[in-house]
Amino acid sequence: MSKEKDRVSPELASLQQQMVHELRQNSTRAVMFHQLISERLGLNATDHKCLDYLNQAGPVTAGQLAQLTGLTTGAVTSVIDRLEQAGYVIRDKDPNDRRRVVVKPVPEGSASISPLFQSIMQSTLEIVSQYTEQELQLILNFIRQCNEMTLTEMNKMKNEKDRMS
What we know:
Layout: H1 3-6, H2 10-41, H3 45-57, E1 60-61, H4 62-69, H5 73-85, E2 89-93, E3 101-105, H6 107-128, H7 133-164
Antiparallel strand pairs: 1-3, 2-3
Helix pairs in contact: 2-3, 3-5, 4-5
């Protein structure tokens, strides 16, 4: 590519910086929102988000949960202990390998969490209803790419930490 094509207009550069700023704001507010939810549930934020993974993924082993979250297996064991004690999950034998244990979300636990998200889900639906199908496809693609980028960055940090150990 030529240098001229590589140049970004000041307007585009400003818009890109605004996007980065708003994404940081969104991330911070999401963390704080989930902290409030966690407090309501009597959990810490990590336990709450691990429970969210379990509710989305269904039964998984502790090792799979560690892989999904990027936490160590030791940390995941502690999370599972706390979630089990709070009544949100149970440990059960893996139907495919009786030597392993799977962690299953308790349906009643999920049911007690859902009402806490009703308002924000309704507000989100109101926002997305303002966009066309084509615009939503673009936004969805952007969000998916951001999610993948975040996972890649998490893995980079984890690999750097492992190399330093």
